[in-house]
Structures are given as structure tokens and as C-alpha cells.
Task: structure prediction
Amino acid sequence: MKIYGLLLALVALLVAPLKAADVQVIANPDVNVAALSVTELKDIFLGSKTAVGGDSVEPVLRTSGPTHEAFLQAFIGKSDAALRNHFKTLVFTGKGAQPKAFASDAEVLKYVLSTKGAIGYVSASADTGSAKKIQVK
Amino acid sequence: MMRVGISGRMAAGAALTALFLGGSASAVKAQSITVGGKEIAVHGFLQQGFNVTDENNFLTMDTEKGSGAMTDAGLNVSSNVTRRLRLGAQAYVRNIGQLGNGSIEVDWAFADYKFADAFGVRGGKMKTMLGLFNDTQDMEFLYTWALLPQGMYPLDLRSVTIAHIGADVYGRVAMGKAGSVAYTGYVGKGQDDDHGGYRYGVQDAGLGFRSGLHTNGGGVDVRWTTPVNGLMTGYSFTQSHDKVDLIVNAARLPFTATSDPARRQSVYGDYQQSRLRLSAELRREYTELSTAPRVFAPSQTPSRSWFGAASYRVHDMLELGTYYSNYVYNLRNPHNLQNNHIYDTAISGRVDLNRFWNVKVEGHFLDGTGNLTLARGFYRRSNTTGFNAKTRMLVIRTGVNF
Result:
């Protein structure tokens, strides 16, 4: 029993470090929704859902880092390498484009605020200014 | 003369690779240009391989001595012209042994109009969805493997299997908690390849071409992203009518060969979770071949291929994997005949030097040569002293993409 307890604790430790609370999902103020399901968010960021509430949406990524990893783990269910391969498949078969990606929260925020339909994510501690905060259900 | 030619192309390939690798860092940054206010994305890849075998020359290369005549590259441009309309095209070139010969071809070029996520249409030349990897079979950077299972995705036949000219309908339907289903249906013409394995294999049998290969057909692919996170499964079906005018060289006897139908069905599954990836596919093919005048007896050939693959990323830079593939050319003949099967066990290691550049080292343990006219790597012209039943092969392959 002790061994099982230790294993469970180890699994919990491995899973715990990156979670949804570490990121906040933001959108251009024109985006016509206040909340998205995890499935909808995943579909938007994999490029398979291109409209929300009748309006086009555009996903915006962080290039790397803890916020990016937390977002992928909490909502997308793919590693960074798997996500890159997903977009390379689209790009090299001609069926889709690689989303914009930025190195910092500030760059993501700037693009989201200036681009109609843009949806991105920043760290939980980032000041999101006038961007719309999207609740993920 | 042949060796001089190969060396020349090898040198050209190596020079191109060096140029591309040297320029990759700056190329990675230059992924788009803006023309008339529209952003045009530019992407490319280049791959270079080295093969050595202990027995049997493979893929028309002089692999028993070691060969680096394995280079291919692609460059594409694409743009979202409007919210719904997308245009793009890709050029592709390759030199693999005696195949490709560096001729540049339009790999895909099409207009894509998406009415909604559930329904869109494409027109032009599109990659053909068949099984897990048909449309992406030449993108080594997507895989752990240096070579995909060659019984199912033979490099030799790339150009005649990878794309069609015609129309697609496609879409994706969300089903709530049941996941989603993506579909693609197509009708169109296949493409011939003057420099491909299909012609090379037919010529190996003492036949000459009086016309190109004419292929008309269609197909459908349906793939279900299941509620189980990371699990996708699907089914593909294609059927075509193929016709080509040939001549028996020795007898100067012309004839027309027709495959009607040439049918393929695939069931497949792919599971990706964290660092683990498991993939499997089973394919059945059925071909009815006839000739007019009746130079050869009509034949019906049911074929089967399958593979199972597993890979694991043990480090951000290192991925290890293995697969077993099994191909039987004619299920009605004894499977254990050397020229009726290819079984392949592969063990692979992939090192990602950065996001854009990888190096792979892969060992293959091949059993059998398959039917020698059907382009699965083994050709008489490359093996004039005959074949051995088993081949051990080392493949080193590197690739960059941006």
C-alpha cells in the first residue's frame, strides 16, 4: 500500500507543476464570446475551428516557455513538438497556415489587441490591459 | 558512366544541402513576405540521406558500397486571400539513386474555399489522403523514422501515389463529447512520373512505354478524433482505373495494360500522449489487370500490408522508436516466397539539433524483396547478380525545414 501511495504522490507531483491556473486566455475585445469550452479552445488552437459566434478567430501562440507549456498541457493535450508537427503537416500539404507566435506576453497582448478575432494566452500574472479575458469552462 | 552520373548528382545534392544548412538560421526568420498588403507565407525543407546495405542494392542506389544519392527538397508559398479563400503551391525536387533525376515538379497547387469548418472545397493538384501518412510521406521531419515502412509507403512510388489533380470536398464535424470527425472526398486524375519507380520497375521487366500512365479515380478518408485524449482512428478508400500503352521490347509487341479496378482500403490508428506515440495501419489492395491484345493472362492480385510503430521522446533533443512492417504482394501465393513479401524491422534514433534541423540514424532488418516489378526498393538493374533473401541496412538522414 505504501508503494502505491508513493507512486500516486509521484504522479501528482509530475502532473501538478503546470496547470490551467498558470495561464489566462485573452482575446481581442471584438471577439463575441466571454467563455469557451476546453474542446472549443483546443479546436481553435489546432486550426480546426475558425469561427466563434459567427466571426472568424485567429489563434496566437507563445513560442516557448513555462506559459506555453502550461497552456499546452492544460488545454491542448499535445507536446510542443507534436503541436509544431501538426502545423507543419498543414503547411506542407497546403491545407493551413502556421499561427503567429511571439516570445513574450507583451508581444502576444499587443498583437491580440490590434488584430480582430485574435485569441491568445499570457501568464497568469500578466497585465492584460483592455483585452477580453476568456473563461475556459 | 553511371557511377560518374551518381557522383555528380551526389556532389550537387551535398552542395545544395550544405548551402541550405548554412542558410537555415536566416531562412527560418524569413517565413513570410508581404505583397499588395497580403501576407505570403514561404516554407521549405531539404533532406539528405546516406544508405548502406550488407546485401542487395536498395532504391536504385549503390547501397552495398554506401550511397548518399538521396536528396529531396520542397519550397512552398501560400496566402489567405480572403477569410474563406486560400491559395498555395509547392515545388518539389528529388534525386534518389536513379529516381527523380533532379527534375522539378509541381507537388501541389490549389485553391481552397472554406464555406464553414464543416464544409470546404479544393480545386487543383492536392495531396491524396490515404491512411496515416500518404499525404505527408515525404516529410521526414514529422517522424521519428528516416524511412517510413516501405511496403506501404514506398519512396519509389511517391510521385504516382501522393497527389491527384481534380477536386476535394472536406470538412470537420464536432460531435461534442464524442469527439469530432474529419472527412475528405476526392475525384481526379493521378499523375505519371517519367523518373519514378513505377516506370523503372516496369522497364526492369523488359517492357517499354508507348504512353504515359493514365489514372482516373476517387476516394474518401474519414478520421475520428475520439474522446480519448490523443487517440485518432480512421478509414480510407480509393479506387482508380489505370491505363498505359506498353511494348514487349524483345518481341516488339505493343499492347495496352489496364487495371480496373485498382482499389485500396486502409484502417489506421494513432495515439499521442505526452512523449509517447503509437501508430498502426492495415491496408488491403486489390488489382485486376488485363492486357489487349492478350499478351499476358488476366490477373487478380490481392495484396496486404500493415505496420505497428512506437516511439518515445526520452529527451527534448532525442527520440527513440521502432516499427515492424509486413507486406505481402499476392495473398493467393505462399507468403514466405522471397519475391512475395517484404518484412522489415526498424530501430531508429532521432536527434533534434534545434527546432528546424534533425539527424536520424536507423537500422533496418529486411526479409524478402517483394515483387520485382512493383517498385518496393529492389530492382534487377541495380542487382544484376541476383538477390539475397535478407538485407541489413543502415540509414543516416538529416533534414532542415522552415
User: Anything to note?
Assistant: Residues 1-10, 22-28 of chain B have pLDDT under 50 and may be disordered.
